Amino acid sequence: MSEKRRDSKGRILKDNEYQRKDGKYEYKYFWGNERKSVYSWTLVPTDKTPEGKRKDTCLRDKIKAIERDLQDGIDHSKANMTLNQLFDLYIDSKVNIREHTKSNYRLLWRTAVQDSKLGNMKISQIKQIHVRKFYADQAKKGAATSTIKTYHNIICPTFEMAVNSDIIRKNPAREAIKGINGTQKKKEALTVEEQKRFLNFVKESDVYNIYYPMLSLELLTGLRVGELVGLTWKDIDSINNVIHIQHQLQYLKLDGKFKFYVSPLKTEAGKRDIPITPEIRKCLTDIKNVMMFTGRRSEVKVDGYTGFLFVTKNGTVYAVSAINFILNNIVEKYNKIEEKKASKEKRSPEYLPHISSHILRHTACTRMAEQGIDVKVLQYIMGHSDIGVTMNVYNHVDKTRVENEMQKIIKIG
Questions:
Q1: How far is the C-alpha of 256 from the C-alpha of 258, rounded, in Å?
Q2: Helix (H, G, I), strand (E, B) or coil at 105
Q3: What stretches of 140-271 adopt beta strand conformation (E)?
Q4: What is the pLDDT of residues 94-105, one digit of tens each?
């Protein structure tokens, strides 16, 4: 009978357990045909780590984890890939999403994750604390809560694929976002007075008046900017007196180059018919007049779609960023003129706030809420899939509407 192997403390070592001359413990095992080893300076949890050595999980706890992985088929040989490499596998495996959506995911990944410590860590080493630190770092850099959630919505399923593929046991990102909030970017609608000043300036401007019908249409319908610039005359249904909202125009990098393309709306709630009111009809007439007087021709074709309502002087369609650029220029010009005018009249200037296409949509929604439109109807018009988004607008309208509603209660009494 052979003598049992012992460590330097006289303890019997189990099969495949060894202690090296430097005192470090080793456990040897096979994964398939591949021989592997794990190491630790301690054998059992009660051992003290030798002075000057890095504290680590004891060998026998590591062995237990290995045995569980072997039993469950967890393949740690693949866990040596980085999170960046795992993401590439994840995004390439997605066959149920559109190519431009994949392009968006890749852009978001390159923006924040790719060059980060998290992106370059081996997935076998990533713990929840590492993912939480990444989210926290993004918050410190000023990222909005919605942006951090977007990163989480890419990172979490990437790890989940590794769990489902038996590469790692747990998803370290699953609960990592809890309690982490970024900056809250409050969406401020224009006041009625600001809206009037804005529209009047655009209408009277020799430079910007060509945009008046388009911006008026946005404030009457509350369309998303991609829906607005993607409108074609075929979407204008004069027989049923509605505007069909069924697609959006986008400008993204695909196959290494930027291009315009028409894509379906993200949700079923986005598909809707907007009634053509007399005000909207006038806008549509004004749009035709602008095209005629400026000599602009809507001959561009994007993914088979032609006859766009809005085209540039070069005959191309508008990118979303171009609309925001135009709005920024309008506000900047207005405020410069207002500042000079106020100085001449010896009063404080009444500046316009920052205005984006999204603020115009939010303003349109707010005006409709102030008019008392039924919340379910407003949800439909705005294309909100979540009624909570619509309710948030109702919760932030001015006190005049609240007082008017209270008067109804008083009349009932």
A1: 7
A2: helix
A3: 236-237, 242-245, 247-254, 257-264
A4: 877 777 677 778
